[in-house]
Amino acid sequence: MLCVAAAIAREPVRFRQAAVVAQEPLAADVGAEVLRRGGNAVDAAVAVAFALAVTHPSAGNIGGGGFLLARFADGRATFIDFREMAPLAASRNMYVGPDGKATEDSLIGWRAAAVPGTVRGLEMAHRKYGSRPWAELLAPAIRLAAEGVTLSYAEARSICGAGARLGRFDESRRIFLKGGACFEPGEVLKQPELARTLERIARHGARDFYEGETARILAEEMKANGGLITLEDLRGYQAIEREPLKGSYRGYTILTAPPPSSGGIGILQMLGMLEGTGYEKHGAGSASSLHYIAEAMRRYFADRAEYLGDADFASVPIRGLLDPGYIATRRATIRADRATPSAELGAGRPRRESEDTTHFNVIDAQGNAVALTYTINNSYGNAVTVPRLGFLLNNEMDDFAAQPGKPNMFGLIQGEANAIAPRKRPLSAMTPTIAEKDGRLVMALGAPGGPRIISGVLQVLLHVIDFGMDIQQAVDQPRVHHQWMPDRLYHERGLSPDTLALLRQRGHELAEIYAVGSVEAILVEEPRVRAVADATTTGSNVTDRIRWLAAAQNGRSAGKASGY
Ligand code: DON
What we know:
Layout: E1 13-15, E2 19-22, H1 25-36, H2 41-55, E3 65-71, E4 77-82, H3 118-129, H4 134-147, E5 149-150, H5 153-161, H6 163-166, H7 170-176, E6 188-189, H8 192-204, H9 206-210, H10 213-224, H11 231-236, E7 240-242, E8 245-249, E9 252-256, H12 263-275, H13 287-307, H14 318-322, H15 324-332, E10 358-363, E11 369-375, E12 433-437, E13 440-446, H16 452-465, H17 471-476, E14 480-481, E15 489-491, H18 497-505, E16 510-512, E17 520-525, E18 528-533, H19 545-553, E19 560-563
Parallel strand pairs: 15-16
Antiparallel strand pairs: 1-18, 2-10, 2-19, 3-4, 3-11, 4-7, 5-6, 8-9, 9-12, 10-11, 12-13, 13-17, 14-15, 17-18
Helix pairs in contact: 1-2, 2-3, 2-4, 4-8, 5-19, 12-13, 12-15, 12-16, 13-18
The protein binds 6-diazenyl-5-OXO-L-norleucine (DON).
The site of 6-diazenyl-5-OXO-L-norleucine has 15 residues, from loops.
């Protein structure tokens, strides 16, 4: 009997002029509406970010931080760093218990929170580059919080899945678990306290969050619950505008995230390592091309562990790590036929110089682009909802090396450059990225997924640039991830058994993983804009296949492309 399996190829969503792609549909629509009313990409990004703080509480936030990368129609580009900062009372070994082992305090509860940056970052972006009134951009979020959001299957399952953590804190249990039971899909989540906080921010700007009533309440609650963040910490928080990292790859210019992100250095270093290998000759998804990609990842992640941290505190040899000569020496150690055991491969020696996240993209009709990734780290952050304020706090302190040399939540080993210090920003993997060619915008992309963000963004770039895939195919193609330690090649489902066998033969230990990031991407191909929301969703360190399969069966993918 002949069996015919029908695979339905997904198509990117095409828009004539402008698009928003986000991980939660209501927020994507908020952004598209801002664009339709004449707002620019930065306006839309601000509105989407505030909306996600209401509709996608696992990662959308005002209690966390992130990075915004923008490229304007005239070719200028900028990067706004609103990563959280360690409080003044933080210290190097604050999460090491009397037994010398890391405690859970960097992950859950009040002490896990670093000083949030989101509201300051969005305000800076709006003040410098926005065009619509601030309050107008917060209005949809306020309405969604006050009137309530009808929970999709995906959101209801996600909140329920975090029930054990959220249930440990009264205010989180009351708001997100109805006092003790999971929300069902189709039920309405109302967040009146959050609506009031957002109203104050709409009226008084970021000042409310950092110096006004919200600051006062947050500092009071911190003190009452053993948290570290004080009014002084909040007042002292600044967003920082930085130069994006810039590199070139096969005629494309890649704009990406500088420290305290580790991602941009990773993307540029790995592209550089791959460029000289001819790996692409073997074809997408082949054992040989995946082997080279994995070996480039292994080498970059070994350097990351050694050298990367907040460059305002530690001396990060950015130029050394991206120096073509250095990259060539790293490339030269890749063997075509054998995986290099990580235990035999340390960080390289670059020249030293003196010296559950979410991502969305917006492209407006003028050709301005924003790629924004922000996070509270774990899904639902540290699980604490601040009483009277209605928002969840981050557990970004866990992105520091709580114990230098020991693995963190993502199994990442990190070194002294990323040790905790007051006012320092934890190293991040968030990698909003924009590609241009011949001075024209080509692509905006990024992802959640911890360290897998960097691997996910890298591979979607490779799929488009080296393998000529359309953006939908580029996102759907199974991806791999290697982070040096553990010495394991993670792969998504969908690689053929003989490809896996060939990788094993080369000495790779393989492990299937649900998702290597959840990549949201927009490709500009005149006269159309093509947008793709990844069909995968990611949880924090564990990705949740069941959640997506069920959501897909309900006819909803996790994210949405919206536009006109
Ligand atoms: O900044 C970072 O690298 C992490 N806090 C990101 C966490 C993340 O992506 C979780 N999402 N799935």
